[in-house]
Specification:
Rossmann fold, 2 domains, eight-stranded mixed beta sheet, 13 helices, binds ligand SAJ
């Protein structure tokens, strides 16, 4: 069977590779000409997929910007972005566009699976009817439709597509059965739930669980600052409990394309049901306020050194939203840099994974001199490859928002 992937990004490409490695031909459809050309030339644009992997798959990956090519696929999997609008409401424009593209190519008997994270009901209320209206085919008879949340975690190496259990929910039992059969080719464990809504909501729960717990420790870091207690010591101590506790660490805020977004998809749907999920809203507020709290900590550290922010040279270490990767979406570092500049700080940054921040007109400064020349070094994202002992030795002042210099001493931590 030929598989179609619609949206060949950090989710779609690893999925395409997983199917191709099982010997299947995969039509990779993405409207982005540059991406599809790169793929055709064996050049990967996803950090987790090396060029060598593409080379080994040869013709099995068939990049295209023509949706018609999906006609030959027995199964089509949609992996397009589901961001927020500026007013923090679900933006389903990519999904609507992708559904329309799929509809132009949908053949009787095809299985369609949505992987994009979205609020419960999207598959049944939006995608299904749109495909039926465009093709005249009926869900569950003319074609099959399911939802299966993506669990691709950029930069993670301990779990792969194969070893991460896959949740699947179909509009009908046959839809679910076909989707389970499809994923069993590339996943060791497939978990079938009774409806697409259960699968859609399971994904949101996974990420809201993180958002709420990250907000809890971020709020605790602010309280500990007031009380003069070391929040890291408190969390280390709590984490000795072998059951009933899961460690989360405070930080400069919560970035990424999932966690700052997903909770607001559920909040949107809940409001439609006249329900106000206060945990979600509160967690979002706390996490969104954490960058400003970190800026006050930088101001206080400079003040104690007799230096105003204005005119001080501040080096931000780490611009991406989490260590080990180069993704800057919703990164707290960008907010911290902007706020420090508004206060007159002379801000530079160094990030081995992020060569430039065009939106800020900055390029990653070479580490060698930047540390010694800075009045203050702020560790905002802790990339594992940086030598923090050397940084602490050379720096005049270090504020560490990731707790990576605690054993070294001589720094100010959250
Ligand atoms: N963060 C903290 N403290 C923590 C954990 C995270 O401040 O204890 C911050 C990170 O620095 C980052 C943000 O929150 O800015 C999100 O971090 P994350 O570790 O949740 O990473 P993400 O956003 O890449 O989340 C992904 C999700 N994977 C998928 O959606 C498939 C999430 O479900 C994973 O659980 C998470 O990776 C993971 O476990 O790493």
């Amino acid at each position: 069977m030929r598989i179609g992937i619609v949206g060949v990004g950090y989710v779609g490409l690893p999925l395409a590779v997983a199917f191709a490695e099982e010997g299947l031909d995969v039509v990779c459809f993405d409207p982005d000409e540059k991406r599809m050309t790169a793929l055709a030339e064996g050049r990967s644009y996803v950090e987790d997929v090396p060029d060598a992997t593409l080379a080994a798959l040869g013709e099995r990956l068939r990049p295209t910007t023509v949706a018609e090519s999906l006609r030959e696929c027995g199964a089509i999997i949609v992996c397009v972005p589901t961001p927020l609008t500026n007013s923090r409401e679900p933006d389903l424009s990519y999904l609507t566009e992708a559904t329309a593209e799929v509809a132009t190519a949908l053949q009787p008997g095809t299985l369609v699976v949505l992987e994009s994270t979205t609020y419960p009901g999207t598959t049944r209320e939006q995608v299904g009817p749109a495909l039926e209206a465009a093709t005249g085919l009926a869900v569950g008879q003319g074609f099959h439709l399911a939802f299966s949340p993506e669990r691709i975690d950029p930069g993670r190496t301990d779990y792969s597509v194969r070893t991460t259990p896959k949740v699947v929910g179909g509009i009908t039992a046959t839809c679910a059965g076909r989707a389970a059969e499809l994923y069993e080719r590339i996943c060791d464990e497939v978990v079938v739930v009774s409806t697409p809504e259960a699968a859609e909501l399971a994904k949101l729960l996974e990420n809201i669980f993180r958002s709420v717990n990250i907000a809890l420790v971020n709020e605790l870091s602010q309280l500990c600052d007031r009380l003069g207690i070391d929040v890291w010591e408190v969390i280390d101590a709590a984490a000795t409990k072998p059951f009933g506790f899961m460690r989360f660490d405070p930080g400069p805020g919560m970035g990424g394309h999932c966690l700052p977004v997903d909770p607001f998809y559920l909040a949107f749907k809940a409001r439609e049901a006249d329900f106000y999920p206060e945990f979600i809203e509160l967690a979002g507020k706390v996490n969104q306020g954490q960058p400003a709290f970190c800026v006050t900590r930088i101001e206080a550290a400079l003040n104690d050194a007799g230096k105003p922010v204005r005119g001080s040279r501040i080096l931000v270490l780490g611009a991406s939203y989490k260590g080990g990767i180069g993704d800057t979406r919703e990164s707290p570092a960008l907010k911290i840099i902007r706020m420090l500049r508004e206060r007159g700080g002379e801000v530079s940054y160094h990030d081995p994974h992020v060569a430039a921040l065009p939106e800020l007109g900055l390029e990653s400064a070479p580490l060698e001199n930047a540390v010694a020349e800075a009045d203050l070094v702020a560790i905002v994202t802790a990339h594992p490859e940086l030598d923090y002992a050397a940084i602490v030795r050379e720096a005049q002042l270090v504020v560490d928002f990731r707790g990576v210099t605690r054993e070294l001493g001589g720094t100010i931590t959250l």
